[in-house]
Each structure stands twice: as C-alpha cells, then as structure tokens.
Specification:
Elements: H1 2-25, E1 78-87, E2 111-113, E3 129-131, H2 161-179, E4 199-203, H3 207-220, E5 232-233, H4 250-259, H5 265-285, H6 292-304, E6 311-312, E7 315-319, H7 322-340, H8 346-355, H9 357-372, E8 382-387, H10 389-398, E9 412-420, E10 423-430, E11 433-434, E12 445-446, H11 447-454, H12 462-466
Helix pairs in contact: 2-3, 4-8, 5-7, 6-7, 7-10
C-alpha cells in the first residue's frame, strides 16, 4: 500500500510539472480539450495527447522482450505464428541544420556484398565486396552545397554504433523468447525450435532499416551458416505497405487533404502551432523556413547521442532548450494522433483502411494460413518487419492503443497467434508488454474477435479503392 501511495504521489508531482511546462509554453491551448473549430469531425476514441516523458527512458531506448519478463499465454498454450514489427535503431540526422556537430558515431559499420546468380553458387569463385558510405563532409575542405553535410563518418540518416547494439539487443531478446529459451522448452506447437530458414524478413528500401534487419537477425540466429544467403524482401516504395504512406493512393491523399485543411483539428492542434514554433527556432538559429519536422529530426538525434543543443551562430547564449525539445515532442505526438487515428468518422476509418489496411491484410492472411497448418514447410513461423516510427505508430493507432507516445528507436510490436485447447488467441506486445487498447484485451484476445475488429480496415481491392497514380511519383 505504501509503495502504491508513493507511486501515486510521484505521478501527481510529475503531472503538475508537465502542466506547468505546458502552461509556460502555451501548450495548454493546443490540446484537444481546448476549444477549436471541428468542421463536424468528432473523434470518438481517446486522443488525449501523449505524456511528455524523459527522452532517454522511452524515445532513445525502447524496451525489449526477454526470457526474464516474458510468459506464455498459459501453461499449455502453444505458438502457431509470430510477427515482429520493429523500428530501426539509433541514427544520425536525415538532413543537416547548420551548425551541426561532428557525427563520428558510425565507424566500423560496413556491408558485405556477395554477387550470386539465382541458379549457381559463386561464393567460392568471386571475392566479397564491402559497401562503405562516404560522407562528403568527412575530411574534405570544400563547402559541399552550403554545408549540406557535416563532419564525421556518419552518412545522413545512417545507423549509428548505438543503433547497431540496440538491434542486436532486440535480436538476443527475441532469441531468448522464440528461438532458444534458456530452459530449453520450445513454445511452438510442434515442439521444435525455429532456425533461420523458418523466418521471413522484410524491410523498407532504406539503408538503416535494411541494416537493422541484418543485425537483428544475426543476433537472433547466431549459429546460422554465414555462407547461407538470407533473403530480405524489399518492395518499391510506391507499393510498400511498411511505409504506411499516401504514395500511390490518390483517394487517401484526397481524404488526408480534407482532414488537414484550414480550420480542422489538425490545423489547430498541430499545423498552426508547429509553424509558430518552427519560426521561433528559425529566429534562434538564424535560419529561414525550416519546417518543424526537420527540427524534430535534428533534436531527437542530438538528444539521443548527447549532442549539445544548437545555438545562434553569433550568440551562444541564445539556444534551443530542454523545454523546447519537450514542446516539439508533444506536438509530434499530436501529429501522429491526427495522422493515424482510426476511428471517429467514416473518413478516418477509410483512411486507415487505405493506409494500414494492406499491411493488416497481409498479416491476417498469413495468420489465417497458420490456423490451417502446423507444417514448417507450409508457412514461415516467424516474420520480421524492419520499418520506421510511423510503421509502429500506425499499427498501434489502428488498434486504438492506450500508449500514445512516439515509438522510439528499436520500438517493437510482436503479434502472436496461440493455440490453447480448442481455441486460438491473439496476443500483441509493445516493447515486450501486452498492448492495452480499446479494440480488445491484447493480453488474450480471441481470434474471432480480432478478425471481427479488423474487418472495417481490410481493403477488398486496394487498387480500385485507391485509384491510379503515375509510377514516377516519389517521396519528397
């Protein structure tokens, strides 16, 4: 009782501190319980903004599943299939905002390439090649495009050494649960332990997500044959469901344009204050027209690697502060809620179906196949998906998860399909813990109930529902 009282007092003190911060920065005027024009859109799900948390406790370092904290669905339950979606590890900024500190966190991270045709093994006849990215700002005296690149060995958006270790830690955690538990007892329905051949791996076509998938899988299966090729499936960005983007879907673009229009909740709670805050940062750093998204990228990367806050070039006492960073994180959480909330209006349900529906349909199709067969050859047991913060966020918002914090580096969602007696059950873990959500109890959600909840978000014909889009369109 004493422990609970102390925790409650600590939580209350923390809440008061956060409210004081929000009041001092004007954030109390930005939340959904403030008055604003809604244009008839009412979100019936809980969209209370995510709490402001210490970056290093959540964003910079996500928790992992582990043998010590994991427990089976029940003593007699057995696994049929597991899907693990994860964000890449810690990285360098995607773009430079002068003045940028030296980024020397990426040395020793190389990629070995082995040329091989589909019908013959050439591993003994040709050399292996190593891919190493060269940063034009490293050791060069020329000013590349007005400081586009920083000094150091990190390429834009590249996985850092810290990011590598995060993915290895996640891989070891998954190994201790699903592959080789220390007690030697397999959780799988046939009693066998999976090997690298039982895994299907997907990644977005981004170097840091591909490398994250490689480091995770190598830690998850440390005894795999180094000469045996492991396939990582990569799809064109226009049709890659892991990107959960608007690319290739004109109908989704049309919906989101309407939901983000002038006078909408998105405009009031995110777009307008984001523009205002970005202008403040421009003034502090003597910059011009830099959107808040770029400041968010730079500040999070700096924070997680203990880099100094940026200051005005001619006045080092005028700097971006910790309060500014918390303000940015709170606005970012607002952005994610209005971008991915899946309920409240027909338009939002349709947007979720078009954006996340294709990935959800793939997931359910594979889980459905596992309910009809337990053969290792008929379907992979483990599916690994290497994506981004938006991948994880979109999935959690589709499930109406209670945790609305921005998914941190190495954030992970495990979707488990269990056989327990005559029933099949779904359990979903976020960073190793059961997801608390409005849609179902994901500590033990019945398979039929899960299917029923997912129905409104499953596209019947995604091409027809989206319409056509020129293949030449790419991300900005």
């Amino acid at each position: 009782m004493i422990d609970r009282t102390g925790a409650a007092v600590s939580a209350l003190v923390g809440l008061v501190s956060v409210l004081m911060l929000w009041h001092s920065t004007g954030m109390l005027d930005l939340w959904p319980f403030a008055s604003a024009p809604h244009r008839g859109e009412h979100l019936i799900v809980d969209i209370t903004p995510a709490p402001v948390t210490t970056l290093h406790e959540h964003y910079c370092n996500s928790s992992y599943p582990s043998y010590e904290t994991y427990h089976p669905l029940s003593p007699l339950a057995k696994l049929l299939q597991v899907h693990v979606f994860h964000r890449h590890g810690d990285r360098a900024p995607s773009r430079n905002i002068n003045p940028e500190p030296i980024w020397n966190e990426c040395d020793g991270i190389v990629e070995t390439l082995l040329l091989q045709t589909s019908d013959e093994d050439q591993s003994g006849r040709i050399p292996r090649f190593t891919r190493r990215m060269h940063n034009p700002g490293q050791g060069d005296t020329r000013d590349y495009r007005n400081g586009m690149f920083w000094e150091g060995n990190c390429y834009a958006g590249q996985l850092t050494r810290k990011g590598v270790e995060q993915m290895r830690a996640l891989g070891r955690g998954l190994q201790s649960v699903y592959v080789d538990p220390p007690n030697g007892h397999s959780l799988w329905i046939d009693g066998e332990k999976p090997d690298i051949g039982d895994v299907a791996i997907r990644s977005t076509d981004v170097w840091r997500t591909i490398q994250s998938a490689q480091f995770l899988a190598s830690a998850m299966f440390p005894s795999a044959d180094p000469l045996h090729p492991v396939e990582i499936e990569i799809r064109p960005v226009q049709v890659d469901s892991l990107t959960v983007s608007e690319l290739g879907c004109p109908r989704l673009q049309e919906i989101m344009k309407t939901l983000k229009g002038k006078g909408t909740p998105y405009d009031h709670y995110y777009a307008a204050p984001a523009k205002q805050l970005a202008s403040q940062f421009d003034a502090i750093l003597s910059a011009s027209g830099i959107p808040l998204e770029r400041y968010f990228d730079m500040l999070m990367c700096r924070s997680c690697n203990d880099k100094p806050r940026p200051c005005h070039p001619a006045n080092t006492s005028l700097c971006i502060t910790d309060s500014h960073v918390q303000h940015v994180m709170a606005l970012a959480s607002n952005w994610m809620q209005y971008e991915y909330t899946s309920g409240g209006s027909p338009a939002r349900i349709e947007a979720a179906r078009l954006r996340v529906g294709p990935l959800l349909k793939e997931l359910l199709d594979r889980m459905q196949a596992a309910t009809h067969s337990t053969s290792r050859l008929s379907a992979p047991r483990l599916f690994l998906y290497s994506g981004h913060d938006t991948t994880i966020g979109a999935l959690l918002y589709l499930l109406q998860a209670a945790d609305k914090r921005w998914p941190g580096y190495a954030a992970n969602v495990a979707v488990e399909l269990w056989q327990d007696g005559d029933g099949r059950w779904v359990r979903i873990l976020f960073n190793g813990r059961p997801v608390k959500a409005l849609s179902c109890d994901y500590d033990r959600c019945g398979w039929p109930a899960f299917l029923e909840y997912c129905k409104p978000f499953l596209p019947s014909d995604i091409d027809r529902e989206c319409g056509s889009m020129p293949v030449s369109e790419t991300r900005s």
